[in-house]
Amino acid sequence: MKLSVVIPAYNAARHIEAVLERVAGLVACGLYEVIVVDDGSVDATVPLVRAWQPSAFQLHLLQRARNGGYGAAMKDGLARARQSSPDVVACIHADGQYAPEVLPAMIEQLAQRRLDLLQGSRIAAGTALRGGMPLYKFVGNALLNRIENHTLGLSMTDYHSGYLVYGPRALGLSFSSLSDSFDFDLEVIASARAQGLAVGEAPIPTHYGDEISHLNPLGYGLRVLRVMWNYRRGRYAA
Hints:
By secondary structure, the protein is of the alpha/beta class.
């Protein structure tokens, strides 16, 4: 198996080295390359990545001239990953919130369940609050989930974790027309669902540490509702 890992990074100097060390442990499950997309960081993220020299896989650093948003960084990372024709692409965040150690089990789930797209769920693991998820996020997630499941015809518990694993068919989606912001992942799920791809979730551990969130909860909630409205209108079907 040929695995590519995309790491979108913005001012991630406090965590990026530790995340890369943890991702390096995935060599045994076919890690071929790691693509770090720096989204206009103004801290030491870029020099730290440049100084990191792996021996068992390729490390690519893509630099965006200015901060364009999470979705914009993911588009660049996924486009670069496609060039290597991987079997699986996984998104792991640069702040250490999502555990690379569970990726082998997620890849196994993707294959065994014949899924095209797999979302890591903090809620399904039953550890969200114990792992430090703020109560307002937990409640907001639950409310949005009801709308998302009803609209998309799924029964998932967490559409917003950002831990996505892409199979070959999911990599064929048209990412360029999707959001440049944090609702990019939800639009990927909506696109996959609209185009008949198999979408599922698997439990992942929850960890909230000293990472800094750049997400505005109210604005994000409104964008989620817009994605659901666009799905109803058939925007993601083509």
